[in-house]
Amino acid sequence: MNQGNNTKSYWEDRFREKGLIWGLEPSEGAVKAAEFLNGSTNKKRILDVGCGYGRDLAYFFSKDYEVTGVDFSEEAVNLGKELFPNIRFDVSNVIPLPYEDESFDAVYGYSSLHLLNQEGRQRFLQESRRVLADGGYVIQTVASTNDPDYGNGEETEENSFISKRGVIKHFYTLETLLKEFDKFKVLKTEEVKIHHTHDEPHDHFDYFVIAQKVASQR
Fold this sequence. Notes:
Elements: H1 5-18, H2 28-37, E1 45-49, H3 55-62, E2 66-71, H4 74-83, E3 88-91, E4 104-110, H5 118-131, E5 132-143, E6 154-157, E7 160-162, E8 168-170, H6 174-180, E9 185-196, E10 202-212
Parallel strand pairs: 1-2, 1-4, 2-3, 4-5
Antiparallel strand pairs: 5-10, 6-7, 7-8, 9-10
């Protein structure tokens, strides 16, 4: 992802200092995504955008998916390559995505889309649609306005706040989530409570969303 040099610097420093920030277990979003994709015929090519060091990529890989990860943090990607040498990692911003049209069956992201500003999120979803094969899926986990962090820090755009760490985070209502994915057929939305143990134990409230690229949505 890319919000600017300050955010990039923050993530490079964090991965350099903390390493395996979230451990090696897959995220809740990855488990839910794999459960869904297991019921889809021939949907095997997954792009993980904002993949970090690849804990979710490794999970998908263990389920026999063809996986590619992309992240703007060289520190994270280098760590991922050391941990998982059989998995493809790319260092790149996500706008534009550095892939050919219709290269993937799913564009996946865990707590990454909400790090972009409004224009960036719109352009990212356009890019996701471009690199998806017909019938492919965007599968994302994003912050909810019910999250305890909502409203903390300076508001940069509606429902977007910049933390003391210099990281911008957007928070969705169900209405704004559906509006943002209006170029896709939304198949599932679920608000979930997720427990984190990094830094100190805390909970987040997120939306898990699955949306499909269909010809009728323009």
